[in-house]
Amino acid sequence: MTAAALTGATAVLLGAAGLAAAGGSGAARTVGGALVLDEGELDFTPRLVDGKLELQIDDRSSGTTVVREPSDVVLHAVQSSLQSTLDPVATALGTTNMDTWQLNGWEAENIFAPEPGWNGSEAEGDTEVSLSGYEGPGDFGMAAYTREMDYADAPAIPYLGSVASVQRTFTLPRDEQRLLPIWQFTKEGVYRLTFTVTSGGSTDTETLAVVVGDDVDPHDVLPGDGSTPTPPTSTSSSPSTSATPTTPTVPAAHVIDNGHLDLAARPVDGSLRFQIKQGTAQDYEWYEPGMVVLHVKPAARRKITAGYEFLGSVGGPVWWLPIQQVDGLVWPGWSTDQFKSSEIDGRVAFRLDAVQGPGALSIFTEGSVGSVTMHAHSGDGLPDSFDLSVPTHRHTVWAFAQEGVYRTTFTVSATLADGRKVSDTETVAWVVGDDVDPSTVNPGEGDEPTATPTATASASASATPTATVSPSASGSVSASAPATDPGSAASGTSGSSSTGGSGTPTSGGLASTGAQVAVIAGIAVLALVVGGGAVFFVRRRRTAQ
C-alpha cells in the first residue's frame, strides 16, 4: 500500500469513528491530543470570534493557513535552535550570555525550527499582551534585536520575560501584521507560558506548552496547562497463541553521539592502524572502527544556503557536522599526531574508497570569502583522497544528504621512515537522524539491503585527490573565519591545531582547527472484519540520547 493510500484509508476510518486528526506540520498527535509544531511560520493572533477576543495560532507551516488553539498544540524549540546568546539580548532579558535555545534568533535562516510571530491586525484596536503565568526549568524572554540594531550599536528591546527585572506586558499595535521577536529559553525541558490578551474591553487567556531541546519527547507532553487527562489506551486484542517472543540480538557496538573524536593514523606494532580516538587530549579511549557506530543526531539538520548547491537545493535539508564543536553533536576530526615526524617519510594519505547509504556524503573545508575546498564527495564518484603532514590534528565539515545508515570505507596509508609502505582499510558505520536506533545497527561493513553503493569514479577522477567548489573567485582556505552557511553554528567552539601541524594546507590538505515522522497507521482491517476492533497508533521510537 502506498503512503498516500495508507494515509487516505486511515483518515476515512478515523473520521468515521470521530477520531480524525487535525492537519498541519505536526507529524504526530500526543496522548493528550496535541499537535507538535516543530518548524515553519506561525503567528499568535488575537482576533474577534463571535464578538469575543480569542488568542489563536495561524499555522502556515504546511503551505496553507490552519487556525489552531494554543491549548491544542505543543511548540517544540528543537535542539538545533541552541545558539550563541548576543550580549544585548542577555542584558535586556536579564539572562545568561551563554548558549540558549532561540526561536527567530540570528541563526533562524539556517535551521528548521518554528518561527513564531505576533499579528495584531485582527483585533479591534491595539492589544495588550501579558505573560500572566509561567512555569519552566529555566528563564524565558522575548526581545527584538536585529542586525541593523547591532550595526547601530542599539540596545535590544525587551517585550516579555520571566526574570523579575523584565516587563510582563507589551502593546501589540493594530497595524502590526508580523512582529517577530527572538524567543529565548535558557534550559532544556517543558515550559508552560500563559498569555493574556486584552483589546476593546475583551480578554482571553491561553496557556502554551513548549518543549525545549531533546531531553523530553514533545509527543509525550500534554498541551496547555497539562491538566488534560490522558485518554485511556485500548488494549483489547485477540488472545495470543504465539510462543514466547524471542529477544533480538543487539549489535555489540559502541555508539558515539556527542563530543570530540579523531579518525586517526596510529602506530601499532611497528605498522600503521586506522583507529578512532574518542575524548580529549587528556582523557580518551581508542576503538577499532569496526566496533563503533557514530550517531549524527537530528540537531545536525540544517538548511542548505546559496553557494552550497552541491549539497542539494537551496532551502532543503542537510545533516551538517561543522568545523566548530557544537554541544550535543559528534565532532569528528582527523589525526596523525600519534606519529612523530621522524617516523614517516612524507605525509599520511586518507582515502574515501566507498560510501553506502541513502544519500551523498561531502567532506570539505571553507575559505574566509565563501570558497569551498572539497576533500571527498561521494555524489560524483569515488575514491577521493587528501593527505596530512605529521604530526597534525585537523577538522572538516561533514555533510550527509539524507537520514539513514551510512557505511564509509577509508584507507589510510603512509611510507615509514625505513621505506616500508603501510596501510589499513576500515569501514565506519554512521546513523544520521533518528529514523534508525543506532543501538540496533551493526558496526563495520553491515548488510543493509537498501544501502546505495557510491558510483565508481572514472580513471581520471581518482588521479585528482581533491576537487574545489568555489562560489567565489577565490580558492583560498581559512579555518579561522568560516563563511555563514548551513553549518555556521553560532554556539560552536573553534578548535586549534595540535603542535607539530604545519597549519598551511597543501593540495589535498585540510583546514586546521582543534577539537516522525512516525508511522501512524490505523490497523483497521481487524475492526472491519470483527466489527469494533481497536485502532492502534504506533509512533516511531525516539532514540535515547
Blueprint (SSEs and pairs):
Elements: H1 3-16, E1 35-37, E2 40-49, E3 52-59, E4 66-68, E5 73-77, E6 82-83, H2 87-93, E7 100-103, E8 114-118, E9 127-135, E10 140-144, H3 147-151, E11 157-161, E12 169-172, E13 182-185, E14 189-199, E15 202-212, E16 254-256, E17 259-268, E18 271-279, E19 284-287, E20 292-296, E21 301-303, E22 317-321, E23 330-335, E24 348-357, E25 361-366, E26 372-377, E27 384-388, E28 393-395, E29 397-400, E30 404-415, E31 421-432, E32 452-453, H4 459-463, E33 467-469, H5 525-530
Parallel strand pairs: 1-5, 2-8, 5-15, 16-20, 17-23, 20-31
Antiparallel strand pairs: 2-3, 3-4, 6-7, 7-13, 9-12, 9-14, 10-11, 10-13, 14-15, 17-18, 18-19, 21-22, 22-29, 23-28, 24-27, 24-30, 24-32, 25-26, 25-29, 26-33, 30-31
Q: What is the overall silhouette?
A: elongated
Radius of gyration based on Cα positions? 26 Å
| Number of alpha- plus pi-helical segments | 5
Q: From the helix content, strand content and strand pairing, which structural class follows?
A: mainly beta
Share in β-strands: 35-45%
The tally of beta strands, per DSSP, is 33
What can be said about the biggest beta sheet? Answer: 7 strands, mixed
Mean pLDDT: 79
Helix content: under 10%
The N- and C-terminal alpha carbons lie at a distance of 33 Å
pLDDT < 50 runs, ≥5 residues: 1-31, 229-243, 458-485, 487-508, 511-545
Task: Describe this entry's structure for a reader.
By secondary structure, the protein is mainly beta. Helix content is 7%, strand content 36%. Strands 16, 20, 24, 27, 30, 31 and 32 form a 7-stranded mixed beta sheet that branches. A hairpin with a 5-residue loop joins strand 25 and strand 26. It is elongated, with a radius of gyration of 26 Å. It starts with a helix and ends in a 15-residue tail after the last helix. Residues 1-31, 229-243, 458-485, 487-508 and 511-545 have low confidence and may be disordered.
